[in-house]
Amino acid sequence: MSTIVFTKKRIKRNIFLLRELMYRIRYGSRAPKYAERIYVNPQIIQQCIFGPTNFLSCSGSVININKKYKNINIYNTPRIKSSIDHWVYGVPWELTDDYKIMLNAIKSGKIWAGCKNEIDLRLRFEQLDSIFYEVKSSMRLKTMNELNNNSFREEGGILVCIGPNGKPLLFDGFHRFAISLILNLQIIPAQLGYVDKSAIDYLDNYRNP
Fold first, then answer.
1. What is the pTM of this model?
2. Contact present, 130 and 6 (Cβ < 8 Å)
3. Which of 2, 91, 126, 196 is 20 to 30 A from 11 in CA distance terms?
4. How far is residue 77 from each of residues 16, 115, 150, 166, 183, measured CA to CA in Å?
């Protein structure tokens, strides 16, 4: 089963690489790449986008972001609020909105973030605590290549879109982003998400740490 999933993912990746080639012809050397690693300052990111979610295909895709998605202040999202409640104010995960939302989804029969039951859920939040203290110790967030030598570019990293006027917008990886925000990190690696049609010229600003 895992072989089939891996093969499907590789086929999809090849499709995105073909799209990347087309963008290269259209936009030249500034063209966005699938799973491209960018570097962002989490302290200046104030908004995230919500809408249709296909985190695999969105990376490096050029669209009109405001037409397809709506912006939400990151502090109004359950994951950011709950992360701050837990890691800043010491609120147990079980009492946070994030935990309650995920638990209710699991009880209704859904698999949420790979969690099938409350045991899985507890393990997930324990892992998040481990990541928090590891990052706190080093005061840096590792790239996906540092975490896994076989990873493709920054695939699986915090997903950040580049919106109109080059504005960075969070799309996925809320907990890792919250860790960076809380620990006051000034620069972190991220996977490029959607790029607004008006933001192509801003990409180079995010390509070097």
1. 0.91
2. no
3. 196
4. 30, 20, 32, 22, 19
